[in-house]
Amino acid sequence: MKKLIVANWKMKPSSLKEAKKIFNEIKKVTSKLKKVDTVICPPFVYLPALGDSVSKQTWRLSLQVGAQDIFYEDKGAFTGEISVMMVKNLGANYVIIGHSERRKYLGETNEIINKKIKTALKNNLKVIFCVGEQERDIEGNYLYFIKNEIEEGLKGISRKLFKNLIIAYEPIWAIGKKGEDADNSEDIFQMSIYIRRVLLGIVGKELSRTIFIIYGGSVEPENAESLLKEGGTQGFLVGHASLVPKNFNKILKIAQNIK
Ligand code: 13P
User: Fold this and answer.
1) Per-residue pLDDT tens for 23-79?
2) Does the active-site annotation cover 73?
3) Is-cis flag, bond preceding 171, omega within 30?
4) C-alpha span between 141 and 159 (Å, rounded)
5) CA–CA gap between residue 214 and residue 10 (Å, rounded)
6) Which residues line ligand 1 (CB under 6 A)?
7) pTM value surpassing 0.70
8) Residues 152, 150: Cα–Cα separation, whole Å
9) List 99, 108, 220, 240, catalytic entry
10) All structural domains of the chain
């Protein structure tokens, strides 16, 4: 099965020139990878330039661009917001929704996230839906927290739209650290089973098996192999390492070579 490796550039880099440079370095590698789908999610303002360059390539299916967010309305008086159609028209096929940084700094609630997921899926955009706990407690309450995030995020969404859904498990405590502080493969493995069980309750057995679950939180070349081999996930959502082409390309090659 193909792996999905998504780059979340967050609010970086500071110039289009730098963005193009990083992107082109990554593009050199993705064209050779048959077993990996790579998605770069840059800030909105770089999408026109990067989306354009991807759609002109014959290998466009192995390298795609995505947005880091969208608004839930199609159009109207919503100053500063960006619609699904706008990003689709710029070549984006994916969107990250519900990232913990948006939940924390922009006040996104499960209800808002649910509306965004609904709009994106209805319009055929692939959704990378982020969930993750702030901390773990020995009583295991964090498991209910994750379950609730998933159930509220997917509430009222038609089953037939779930083919375009990807769940990104990103424990907040593991984000933005060094590779050694990432979650360990065993925990991720257990969490991926747990998430699949939660999905089973929502979408049924067959569909729940096919939904991709990816991991994010301090993925670096050093831990990528063991996390992918033993973590039971189908890919990664990579933050800081995705802005360093040398490191991101190493992660892509590891994903390509995983048995
Ligand atoms: P880091 O890889 O920098 O920990 O970021 C993870 C993340 O938040 C990706 O969405």
Assistant:
1) 999 999 998 899 999 999 999 999 999 988 776 655 446 899 999 999 999 999 999
2) no
3) no
4) 28
5) 18
6) 8, 99, 170, 175-176, 216-219, 237-241
7) yes
8) 6
9) 99
10) 3-257 (3.20.20.70)
